[in-house]
Automatic annotation (TrEMBL):
This is Ribonuclease P protein subunit p29. GO terms for molecular function: endonuclease activity; hydrolase activity; ribonuclease P RNA binding. The lineage of its organism: Eukaryota, Metazoa, Chordata, Craniata, Vertebrata. Component of ribonuclease P, a ribonucleoprotein complex that generates mature tRNA molecules by cleaving their 5'-ends. SMART domains: POP4. It comes from Pyxicephalus adspersus.
Length: 221
């Protein structure tokens, strides 16, 4: 059983009057549809439009494919650019010990929360392991041992940490740069005194937080 597909129909007189349209004569309508199909299907020659539509569907509108726009990932500044712009430079008028005491108080609370409260029964080894991975900005440290005698006894608050050095502000309002290598630092908080080898800290703070430290015995400088 064959099915006849109507590709067009005459609009009812009632609907045409409602929309203010003029109904064309059947011959004019057929001529318009035939012309329209030829423009849309220029390769259709041997068969009529009606015969062609009985066999397959025809897409008359061109579908535009949306191109995916590549998002430009914003690149951050390089280390060289940051140094040239002096983004991390601590100005002379800001090199005052008292200015950073609130930072030290925040750091002490951060360590207390990290260690679930520092109590007399807290194991020193656990505190040391936490400090190895902790952010040390704001910590009050002292150089306990060093191959360079001029560093020994230097005490202050850590303001900046890089892979190889600490920048420390002393009580004398002097900014000192102390290398991590060949130095042992002591950190005191709530009666707990921890000694940390600077050689274990030779990495960025973000990298140190994810590192697994192996328990080793004391090392001589």
């Amino acid at each position: 059983m064959s099915h006849v597909i109507d590709i067009y129909k005459t609009l009812p007189l009632k609907d045409a009057t409602e929309f203010g349209l003029e109904i064309q004569a059947p011959k004019k309508a057929n001529a318009f549809v035939s012309s329209f199909m030829k423009r849309c299907l220029p390769n259709l020659k041997k068969v009529t439009a009606d015969e062609f539509l009985e066999r397959k569907a025809v897409v008359l509108e061109h579908v535009h494919k949306k191109k995916k726009r590549k998002r430009n990932k914003s690149k951050g500044l390089t280390s060289k650019e940051r140094r040239e712009m002096k983004l991390f430079e601590i100005k002379a008028d800001q090199q005052r010990y008292e200015m950073f005491l609130p930072l030290h108080d925040l750091w002490k609370q951060y360590i207390r929360d990290l260690c679930n409260g520092l109590k007399p029964e807290t194991q020193p080894q656990m505190v040391q392991n936490k400090l190895l991975k902790a952010d040390l900005h704001g910590a009050l440290v002292m150089v306990f041992k060093s191959k360079c005698p001029s560093y020994v006894g230097l005490t202050g608050i850590i303001l900046q940490e890089t892979k190889h050095v600490f920048k420390i502000i002393t009580k004398e309002d002097k900014l000192k740069v102390v290398p991590k290598l060949n130095c042992v630092f002591s950190v005191e908080i709530d009666g707990f005194i921890t000694y940390i080898y600077g050689s274990k800290l030779q990495m960025r703070a973000s990298e140190r937080s994810a590192k697994k430290f192996k328990a080793k015995g004391s090392l001589d400088l």
